[in-house]
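Archive entry. Fields below.
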Amino acid sequence: MSLDAVLQTFYIEAQEHLESMENMLLKMDEGECDDEMLNDIFRSAHTIKGSAGIFGLDHIVNFTHVVENVLDRARDNEIDIDKNLIDVIFKCRDHMQSLVAVSLDEYNAQTDLQKTDSDLLAALAPWTSTENKQTVAQNNTPAESQLDNKLTNEGDNENLWHISLRLSTDCLRNGMDPLSFIKFLSSLGEIKHIETIIDNFPQVDNFDAESLYFAYEIALQSDASLEEIENTFMFVQDDSDITILPPTAKIDDYLLLIDKLPEENQRLGDILVNCGSLTRHSLEQALIAQSTVITATGEQTVTPKLGELLTEQNKVSESIVSAALTKQKQNKSQVSEGKQIRIDSNRLDHLINLIGELVINQQRIELLSKGVKKPQLTEAVDDFENFTNQIRDAALSLRMVAIGGTFQRFKRLVRDTAQELGKEVELTIDGADTELDRLMVEKLGDPLTHIVRNAMDHGLESIEDRQAAGKNTKGQLKLAAYHEGGHIVIAISDDGNGINKERIREKAIEKGIINTDSKLSDNELFHLIFHPGFSTAAEVTNLSGRGVGMDVVKRNVEALQGSIDISSQAGKGSEFKIRLPLTLAIIDGFHVEAKGTHFIIPQATIIECINLANHQDIKGRHCINLRGEMIPYLNMSEIFKLTPSREQTLADNIIQHSPKRELVIVQFGSDVAGIAVDTLNGEIQTVVKPLGPIFKALKGIGGSSLLGNGEIAFILDVPQLIELAIANEIASKVSRAESMNGQ
Amino acid sequence: MVDKSSQFLTFTIANEHFGMDLHQTREIIEYAGITQVPLMPQFISGVINLRGEVVPVIDLSVRLGRQPITIHKRTCVIVIELHTSEQHCVLGLLADAVNEVIDISASNIEDAPAFGAKIRAEFIQGIAKKDDEFIVLLDAEKTLSPRELAHLVEAELQ
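PREDICTED_STRUCTURE:
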């Protein structure tokens, strides 16, 4: 692990701590406030400060230190927590985020950052202590700070030995009393501190009165020699784990000890202190020495060169950093080690690609095995299919992340936006654990932001208006995520005024988007807001109203193969539903053929398949009556102007002679339509292969895929296909009308 | 212009000889059918499955303003790899026959004639002469620029 990588860990962790701070602050802002939350915030700030100190990022340390002090005072009930304080802490948190993002040099170069720094410190002044708390550089827990003070007061760490005592469980049985060792030690010098570690203490049921469960960390001030101290433990040293660190011990030895200690969840700070004052003292010194190296080279940013340089120059310090950070990570938010690992997303993508190939290969083998009529082979191939599917699902689940993290970020956005707009808004979140493809989660942030802002700006009314309408003054905004028929739906709803259809209509006419006599359904009307350049806000606000947002929203969602539905009721509110596919890499599809060309229709869109021969077209139109419902359908070979290829002509003749035509009924959003094809070949799992930039303009086809026999099939993009059919129909009507006029 | 000797892969389409910088070519495969892509302009013959990769195949003949290539037993696909500033792109080209790899020194390459070649001048890197035959050296990046091909597809679809 190079220093560079450790620094990277610091950035990631700092980010996580800042996020958790934000979440806690939001909760406090909502009026929930308990000691645990304050502790959490304090811990986050403290950890950031501590880690930043390790890297010599003084700008973070100095600022965070003051914040931490205020938090500490709040924790000790010395100051009251009110809205003002929360506001300032919010700002401080944001500033810490900016500080973490820059290096010390960049910070020194950016006067605005320094200004914010001093502004915020001034804002914090009412809450900062009048006592000189600055001397306690790293006060962690009250106990710790006491100890800290004690040590500083004594100011003399000479001849301080550190003894780590892990006596054997059988110690008592062998007639040894640990107390006698400690008593004897006190005859050699003065015992400064004893920390008893009781982590090994068992459940009452398993408790054996003759076993020893205690371990000790002892700081001993003594002029005795190593030999004398060692002799104390002469009778137990064979089956016990005893480490004696002399006053001259190197940092490495302490690091070894930290690593060796079995107490995994022990807070790093505690360990440092409990290990004896020496460790803290020396560790700090070592850290100072190290940061001097860093500052001397003048760049403590994430440059790989520096990392390597330091690794060569200063191996010791690097190991300190690693050990310290590792321990810190272990005690972070009680997530025990081994439950979570971080992986480079590229590696994950590579694995998923490979598994995609595996799926194709498996299908090929299945196809080949059908020709060989051997029961054992068929069985083996079936098993193979079963396992391939499991591997595929497991691999895909690696890419899935819960949407909750994204939703969580909106709490802050909503809070700030509400303040800016002078509205009262309550955000509720539902289905935070719904999982989505990581890629999608990344790309959803922007569209969601736009919709949420729009809902708050245009949807929710001002406090007075809400009162007048007899509503709760607090506007309700809801973010929800759930599964629906092979899709994931993300719904953003508000209980505001609803979308004003008339306003949209007027505006669209004014902007020349529709004609004065256009007849539009509600849905079509609502979708006009996604038209580029459309904005109904009478005045352009800071948040929305520039008309650049919503068309971007639509484009982003479509890029994810999703769609947006809008529903709205005047006076009651509106709902935006973003419908997304489960994953982008592999889809379950239905394999069909038209004029010898292979197509795959995403399974999630299919309702049923029927035989077209059994249904009559309604009055020559491309519509059938399906159980009393009129379903329009499109002809695959017409819409794609398919002509049988040379090889296919012969086979195709046969198909043309047979009147058997199949109709696949698909649904997308609220639209239901049929797709007429020649043959149905059944369900297939397929890996999506993008068609490449050249085919970007091709509508109705979302990608390609390889079939088991190596042939290429095109994956249909159903909504685009329906759009294409509508566009074609309009075009043909226009041309027909023109030709009739011509006559 | 090339200032020293470079290697070119030469191939024939409808009795005309063409050359392409060897560095841009990846492999030559036998023509074994092609999957047509719906609604595509004529210069896109379709796509092929190249060991699990879906690769578009261009009818160079159409792209250069000539008749579509006639598929026969010896038709082959030259797979080329373009590294443009935006992305790298793999394309197949249909050719009647692939001839040889030859060294052509810079001095043997002449500028494209301003007219008369019946090919857009910017597509031509130069003209080389070998055994009384002219070889049109194509500038693959210009002739097969993915961006321009995408524009042509878009125009065709509208």
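CURATOR_NOTE: The radius of gyration of chain A is 34 Å.
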